[in-house]
C-alpha cells in the first residue's frame, strides 16, 4: 500500500504542476489582455483546485504510512535537511499552499467583476505555486531523476 500511495503521490505531483502552471498562465494572459472571464478560465481554475485537493488527501495518507513521514519526526531528523524536508517542511508548506489556493478559488468565485476574478486567481495561485515549488524534494523525486 505504501508503494502504491508513493507512486500515486509522485504521479499526481507531475500532473498537478502541469495543469496548475497552465491554469495560471491562462489567467495571467486573461488579466493582461483584459479578456472576459470565460467558462474555460473557470474550468482551468477548478481543475487546478481539484488536483491540489487530491494531492493533499493522498499526501496526508502517505504522511502516516511512509517511513519518511510522521514516524520519522525526531530531534535528529531536524538536524538533517532532507529528513526535515520530508517530515516537516514539505507537508506543512504544502498544506499552507493548498489553503491559499482554495482561498483564491473561493474569492474568485465570489468576485463580481472579471478583472477581480483574474486577479484573485493570479495572486493566490502564484503564491501557492511558489510555495509548492520551494518544497519539492527535487534531488530525490524518482519520477524526474
Ligand atoms: C483533505 C481533503 C480535503 C479538504 C480538507 C478539502 C477542502 C475543501 C474546501 C475547504 C473547499 C471549499 C472551497 C470553496 O470555498 O469554494 C473545497 C472545495 C472543493 N474540493 Fe476539496 N478538500 C479535500 C479533498 C478533495 C478531493 C479529494 C477532491 C476531489 C478529487 C476535492 C474537490 C473539491 C471540489 C470539486 C471543490 C469545489 C469547488 C467549487 O466550489 O466549485 N477536494 N475543498
Ligand atoms: C501540492 C502539493 C504536493 C506536491 C506537489 C507534492 C510532491 C511530492 C513529491 C514530488 C514527492 C517525492 C516523491 C518521490 O520521491 O517519488 C513527495 C513526497 C512526499 N510527500 Fe508530497 N507533495 C505535496 C503535498 C504533500 C502533503 C500535503 C503531504 C502531507 C501532509 C505530503 C507528504 C509527502 C510525504 C510523506 C512524502 C515522502 C514519501 C516517501 O518517499 O516515503 N505531500 N511529495
Secondary structure layout:
Layout: H1 2-32, H2 39-65, H3 75-79, H4 81-110, H5 114-134
The structure holds protoporphyrin IX containing FE (HEM) (2 copies).
Residues 6, 9-10, 13, 16, 52, 55-56, 59-60, 62-63, 66, 68-69, 86, 90-91, 94-95, 132, 136-137, 140-143 line the site of one protoporphyrin IX containing FE.
Can you characterise this structure?
The chain is mainly α and 145 residues long. It has one domain (2-134). Helix content is 79%, strand content 0%. It contains five helices and no strands. It binds protoporphyrin IX containing FE (HEM) (2 copies). The site of one protoporphyrin IX containing FE has 12 residues, from helix 2 and helix 4.
Structural class: mainly alpha
Number of strands: 0
Taken in chain order, the helices and strands follow as HHHHH
Which molecules are bound besides the chains? protoporphyrin IX containing FE
The tally of structural domains comes to: 1
Quickly count the helices.
Answer: 5
Query: Which word captures the global form?
Result: elongated
> Helical residue percent?
over 70%
Euclidean distance between termini CA atoms: 23 Å
Question: What's this, in brief?
Answer:
The protein has 145 residues and is mostly helical. It has helices spanning 2-32, 39-65, 75-79, 81-110, 114-134. α4 runs antiparallel to α5 (114-134).
List keywords for this structure.
elongated; 145 residues; binds protoporphyrin IX containing FE; 5 helices; mainly alpha; 79% helix
Amino acid at each position: 500500500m505504501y508503494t502504491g500511495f508513493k507512486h500515486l503521490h509522485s504521479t499526481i505531483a507531475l500532473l498537478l504542476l502541469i495543469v496548475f502552471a497552465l491554469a495560471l498562465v491562462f489567467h495571467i494572459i486573461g488579466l493582461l489582455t483584459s479578456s472576459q472571464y470565460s467558462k474555460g478560465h473557470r474550468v482551468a481554475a477548478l481543475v487546478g483546485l481539484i488536483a491540489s485537493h487530491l494531492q493533499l488527501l493522498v499526501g496526508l495518507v502517505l504522511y502516516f504510512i511512509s517511513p519518511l513521514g510522521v514516524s520519522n519526526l525526531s530531534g535528529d531528523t531536524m538536524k538533517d535537511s532532507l529528513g526535515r524536508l520530508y517530515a516537516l517542511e514539505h507537508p506543512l508548506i504544502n498544506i499552507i499552499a493548498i489553503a491559499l489556493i482554495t482561498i483564491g478559488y473561493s474569492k474568485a468565485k465570489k468576485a463580481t467583476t472579471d478583472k477581480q476574478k483574474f486577479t484573485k486567481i493570479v495572486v493566490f495561485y502564484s503564491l501557492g505555486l511558489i510555495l509548492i515549488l520551494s518544497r519539492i524534494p527535487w534531488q530525490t523525486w524518482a519520477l524526474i531523476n
